[in-house]
Design brief:
By secondary structure, the chain is mainly α. The protein has three domains: about 100 residues, no CATH class; about 30 residues, no CATH class; about 25 residues, no CATH class. Helix 2 runs antiparallel to helix 6, helix 4 crosses helix 6 and helix 7 packs across helix 8. It is flat. The N and C termini lie far apart (about 65 Å).
């Protein structure tokens, strides 16, 4: 059973193109040398420009070419820079952002779909698509919903149609 588990994990991770690309992108930062994977990402500019910025970044931040720096090192150093200095390294910052926004799992998307499925069974026949989207977003992102002012929400609802102003009156 253990052998089967190990082989399944190995197969899953060794055949994943996304993980291989992610590792290659991270190796660009850690080694300081740009490889062909950067050509797949137009936001990283031309290959020579990224290499030049990485070399300049490592020299200005006292990172030796022999040291292997990880993503956290780059992110911390970029965060400490002033916006003017950070503007000198837009491609290095873009590479860091690209590596930071890579999703670790699809749990959030799956949670959204399961929430939508529960909502739709109850609301399917009585609600339009636009309202369903708003209700679904409110159900999924409850923390954001807590920050919304109920009074402002009621005011927007009443003012959206003239018949509601007649029914509910003006809300200040």
């Amino acid at each position: 059973m253990l052998d089967v588990s190990i082989s399944q994990i190995t197969d899953r991770f060794s055949s994943s193109i996304g993980l291989k690309r992610y590792a290659q992108l991270e190796s660009i930062l850690s080694s300081g040398t740009v490889n062909d994977i950067a050509l797949l990402y137009p936001e990283l500019g031309l290959e020579g420009d990224l290499q030049m910025e990485l070399t300049m970044f490592r020299k200005t931040q006292n990172m030796t070419m022999t040291s292997r720096c990880n993503l956290d090192d780059y992110v911390q150093r970029i965060a400490k820079m002033t916006p003017e200095v950070r503007g000198m390294f837009p491609l290095v910052e873009a590479l860091c952002r690209l590596l930071l926004v890579n999703p670790a799992s699809s749990a959030t998307a799956e949670r959204s779909f399961s929430s939508l499925r529960r909502l739709k069974t109850y609301l399917r026949s009585t609600i339009g698509q636009q309202r369903l989207n708003h209700v679904a977003l409110g159900h999924i992102h409850k923390s954001i919903l807590k920050e919304i002012s109920t009074r402002d929400l009621m005011k927007d609802f009443v003012q959206s149609r003239g018949s509601r102003i007649v029914t509910f009156g003006h809300i200040d």
